[in-house]
Structure formats: C-alpha cells, structure tokens
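Bug #77: duplicate submission created two jobs. Keeping one. Sequence:
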Amino acid sequence: MLSGYCACINPASHQKIVSGENDGNSLTPPDPMATAQPAFLLRTECPPGACNCGRDALLANPAGDLRVLRLTREDEKRLLQRLENVSSLADLQHMQDRMAQQVGIRLSIQSSAKEVRSLRGITILVHEQPGLCRKTRQAIPAAIKRSLEQRPEIAYEILNVGSLFEGE
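Kept job's structure:
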C-alpha cells in the first residue's frame, strides 16, 4: 500500500514517475532519478466504464499527444469558469487558440445552416481526441452556451460571421 505517492508522467519518454514517501509496506523504494522533477501531473482516471476517453491507449502510444492529460479536474473547473466569462467573440477565439496550443482541444463554433432563432442554432463541437474525458467534451459547449446566454452580442457576432445580418 502506497501512501503519499503522486503519479506523474515524463512527456519525453512517456514513463510513469512516482514520487512521495514510502510507508514501509512497499517492496521497492522509488527510483531517486525518477523523483527528481516530474514533468506534469496526470489527470486522474475516470471510474471504470464511466468514460470512453481512451486514456490507457494514449499512455501506451509513444507518439501520442499527452497534452490533454495535463488538464486536471481543478484546471478544467478554471477553464469552464473562464469560458463562462468570455467578454467578446475575440476573447472566445483567443480561448479556442489557447486551448488548442496548451492542451490540444479543438473547438468548432458556427451557426447552423438552417434558420437560427435561438442559441440552439449555434453548433459548438469539441473534436474527439484520445484522452479527453466524455464529461469534459460535454461541459465545454455547455459553458460556452451559458456565456452566450449572458452576452447575446457574442452570439450575434458568431451569426454575423456567416453574413447573416449583412443585408439588414
């Protein structure tokens, strides 16, 4: 039984790094070289059967993009809060770019091809990616829609990108 251990991953080698105190019940102590400086903390696993994110397959793939695993639950809460509080379309686009750069999450936000009468006509798609939790893929569009409800001028700007209001 290990207590006080933290599982981290080194992105260069995809090796698991274990750091912490040994409680005496462990058969092998942690490698002193592995505990030197962890690269980043991994997001905790979802309960078995609750998610289809492909986290284990991503960890097993040496060429996999591990950036999405940097998004811990606390970071996700801060991201969702930030998305709920965007102030303009430029701010939302800036957040899209930052999400793609830092954790590899790609978004598509566009108006529907059919007639748009409400926010339901704006499509927000989080592209599938190994390691991205199902709940996160659902929470990001919900946070953006809450932001658009609070600031309808952003929704109008999104609709106007396709020149919906140009003729008026």
